[in-house]
């Protein structure tokens, strides 16, 4: 049995949008490019044709990957969650105990993670360390730069 993929409704919508774009825009464009390249004659030495075929292969692979992710998606409606305990979907503000610098992250599924955008994967070291903890708790996280200690300042479900 295939493993479910947890994700937020926003993450699911992003996958749907990418899939819609690939099916309705990218596929027809690459089919047209292949047809135009075929008109140029000898396919064995036609770089345009081979590039278009490579692009088509990429698109079809990505479509299959997105369809699989959607089929296995376990969409979690974050707006129905609440409390001071960190769970999937929570937006958590952490204070570095050494520098008092605050950082805010939302805990999301692996495929929708974007650290620069403030969205960390549920499987990341920080998320694993803070899940199940509450506001005011201190956590220790193993980072590439060594041990870091954070205090959970706020937990919100938006």
UniProtKB/TrEMBL annotation:
<dbReference type="GO" id="GO:0003746">
    <property type="term" value="F:translation elongation factor activity"/>
</dbReference>
<dbReference type="GO" id="GO:0003677">
    <property type="term" value="F:DNA binding"/>
</dbReference>
<dbReference type="GO" id="GO:0006354">
    <property type="term" value="P:DNA-templated transcription elongation"/>
</dbReference>
<dbReference type="InterPro" id="IPR001437">
    <property type="entry name" value="Tscrpt_elong_fac_GreA/B_C"/>
</dbReference>
<dbReference type="Pfam" id="PF03449">
    <property type="entry name" value="GreA_GreB_N"/>
</dbReference>
<keyword id="KW-0805">Transcription regulation</keyword>
<feature type="domain" description="Transcription elongation factor GreA/GreB N-terminal">
    <location>
        <begin position="5"/>
        <end position="75"/>
    </location>
</feature>
<dbReference type="InterPro" id="IPR023459">
    <property type="entry name" value="Tscrpt_elong_fac_GreA/B_fam"/>
</dbReference>
<comment type="function">
    <text>Necessary for efficient RNA polymerase transcription elongation past template-encoded arresting sites. The arresting sites in DNA have the property of trapping a certain fraction of elongating RNA polymerases that pass through, resulting in locked ternary complexes. Cleavage of the nascent transcript by cleavage factors such as GreA or GreB allows the resumption of elongation from the new 3'terminus. GreA releases sequences of 2 to 3 nucleotides.</text>
</comment>
<dbReference type="InterPro" id="IPR018151">
    <property type="entry name" value="TF_GreA/GreB_CS"/>
</dbReference>
<keyword id="KW-0648">Protein biosynthesis</keyword>
<dbReference type="InterPro" id="IPR006359">
    <property type="entry name" value="Tscrpt_elong_fac_GreA"/>
</dbReference>
<comment type="similarity">
    <text>Belongs to the GreA/GreB family.</text>
</comment>
<dbReference type="GO" id="GO:0070063">
    <property type="term" value="F:RNA polymerase binding"/>
</dbReference>
<dbReference type="InterPro" id="IPR036805">
    <property type="entry name" value="Tscrpt_elong_fac_GreA/B_N_sf"/>
</dbReference>
<dbReference type="InterPro" id="IPR022691">
    <property type="entry name" value="Tscrpt_elong_fac_GreA/B_N"/>
</dbReference>
<dbReference type="InterPro" id="IPR028624">
    <property type="entry name" value="Tscrpt_elong_fac_GreA/B"/>
</dbReference>
<dbReference type="InterPro" id="IPR036953">
    <property type="entry name" value="GreA/GreB_C_sf"/>
</dbReference>
<dbReference type="GO" id="GO:0032784">
    <property type="term" value="P:regulation of DNA-templated transcription elongation"/>
</dbReference>
<dbReference type="Pfam" id="PF01272">
    <property type="entry name" value="GreA_GreB"/>
</dbReference>
<keyword id="KW-0251">Elongation factor</keyword>
<keyword id="KW-0804">Transcription</keyword>
<feature type="domain" description="Transcription elongation factor GreA/GreB C-terminal">
    <location>
        <begin position="84"/>
        <end position="157"/>
    </location>
</feature>
<keyword id="KW-0238">DNA-binding</keyword>
<protein>
    <recommendedName>
        <fullName>Transcription elongation factor GreA</fullName>
    </recommendedName>
</protein>
């Amino acid at each position: 049995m295939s493993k479910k993929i947890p994700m937020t409704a926003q993450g699911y919508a992003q996958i749907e949008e990418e899939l819609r774009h690939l099916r309705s825009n990218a596929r027809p464009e690459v089919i047209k490019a292949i047809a135009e390249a075929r008109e140029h004659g000898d396919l064995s030495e036609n770089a345009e044709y081979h590039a278009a075929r490579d692009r088509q292969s990429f698109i079809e692979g990505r479509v299959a990957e997105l369809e699989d992710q959607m089929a296995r998606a376990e969409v979690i409606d974050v707006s129905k969650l609440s409390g001071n305990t960190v769970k999937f979907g929570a937006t958590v503000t952490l204070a570095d105990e050494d520098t008092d610098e605050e950082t805010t992250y939302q805990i999301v599924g692996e495929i929708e993670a974007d650290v620069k955008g403030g969205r960390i994967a549920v499987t990341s070291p920080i998320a694993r360390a803070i899940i199940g903890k509450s506001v005011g708790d201190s956590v220790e996280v193993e980072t590439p730069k060594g041990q870091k200690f954070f205090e959970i300042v706020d937990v919100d479900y938006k």
